[in-house]
Amino acid sequence: MEGAVNASRATDWRNWAGNQQSAARVARPGSTDELAELIKGSAGERVKPVGSGHSFTDIAVTDGIRLDVTSLAGPVDVDREQRRVTVPAGMTLATLNALLATHGLALPNLGDIDAQTIAGAISTGTHGTGAAFGCLSTFVAGLTLVTGTGEVLRCDAGSNPEVFAAARVGLGALGVLTEVTLQCVDAFVLRAHERPGRLADVLSGWPELVADNDHCDLYWFPYTDRVQVKTNNRVAADDNPLPSWRGWLDDDFLANTVFAGVCRVGRAVPAAVGPINAVSARALTERVYTGRSDAVFCTPRRVRFTEMEYGLPREAFPTMLGELPRLIERLPFKVQFPVEVRFTAADDIPLSHGYGRDSVYVAVHQFKGAPYEPYFRAVENLARDLGGRPHWGKLHYRDAESLRPVYPLFDEFVALRDRLDPHRVFANAYTERVLGS
User: Does residue 320 contact residue 360 with C-beta atoms inside 8 Å?
Assistant: First the structure.
């Protein structure tokens, strides 16, 4: 491990949103064996794996050793017949998607950002949308975990099944993921349909909208009755690709460059936010196109923001979204970002937000530098009353005492943590808050 830890001085780190930062020594192990030796020789110092920094919480913050998982090497194994791929856990989703495409494979579902590492995405319960699809962790068929004692565990449904079940959404608290095997599907094409709509129509017709489409995503514009409805469905042929100029105009220029400018105006002149939202919502036009699945699922995100997201029982959707307009009207500041709504299927992963129930996810955002805490706390209070579970990678204010009742296997997860990391090598302020010390 000589040279893996920069012992001369701590280096600064910030997450993507810029709302979390820390100074720590950095380790860049190149293999699972090097990582195991580092952990064994940490001498009581805390070690925290860090990916691409796309979590908004302090889940990756440490004053101990910051572990750069992007340096972890390992063989890439593609089993085309079984449609399985084994890759280093520090690989980004974007790199994975490109790799899968060369082998005629794809992940069954994705979120709208592909910059995360695989380890970071599954450890926090990253998800897309689709009534028949769980979070990305449900696609994990096997994993390699280095525990707090430096033990290397190979886990799947048949080997170390208890660890496998929990480590698929492990919050970085059970160990460091070094390798992940993912169950893929044959590559497929999506037909995307984006159209404007009205909030009242969505609140009354959402069950059919969700049931009739493979994937459904909704955006409500605060201070208006307007929504953007986005559906993606599997089709046989890529026969209506989006022209490159239209993709650049809509997804790059308007959604990033122009939107960033609009947000800066709103931050400087709060009274302009309502009229701007109204104009933006009415300017939405219908768009239909086809494309490779990951290219349709994922879009560029260069406008920086803070975010809270809650997973709720799916039947709570009308109450949650129905209350948000009144909640937002009472805030002492303006909300610039649309509210995003997605839907997922139940799963069996202990600390997954979707454990044991079909879910609706409601995400609220604020432009970087704009006030957010009163907004997020008010949304959290509403979501908590409805049985909500906060996304592990998004801002929230919950602790172990309040989380235990909404996760039936919470204590079993904590007991497994006691066994795998008895000296709390992987602990930090976040894990102590949400799991207990």
Answer: yes
Q: Which residues, 6+ apart, have CB-to-CB distance to 130 below 8 Å? A: 109, 214, 215, 216, 343, 344, 345
The pTM of the whole model exceeds 0.70: yes
Cα–Cα distance, 433 to 397 (Å, whole number):
9
Other Cβ atoms closer than 10 A to 401 = 8
Cβ 144 vs Cβ 32: under 8 Å: yes
Q: Whole-angstrom Cα distance, residue 48 to residue 58?
A: 11
The one-letter code for the residue type at 21 is Q
Tokens of 52: 């691409």
CA distance 167 to 161: 10
In order along the chain (437 residues), what is the average pLDDT of each group of 10 residues? 47 94 92 93 89 95 90 88 97 97 98 96 97 98 97 98 98 97 98 95 96 97 94 96 66 61 76 72 80 94 91 97 96 94 98 98 94 97 98 98 98 98 96 95
Give the pLDDT confidence score for residue 5 in this predicted structure: 43
* 290 contacts: CB under 8 Å, gap ≥ 6: 189, 190, 191, 192, 235, 237, 238, 239, 240, 241, 296
What is the pLDDT, as a whole number, of residue 257?
58
Q: Residue 229 is encoded by which pair of tokens?
A: 């409805």
Please give the Cα distance from 262 to 268 (Å, whole number). 10
pLDDT of residue 250: 62
**Alpha-carbon distances of 347 from 36, 241, 272, 297, 312, rounded to whole Å:** 31, 34, 43, 21, 14
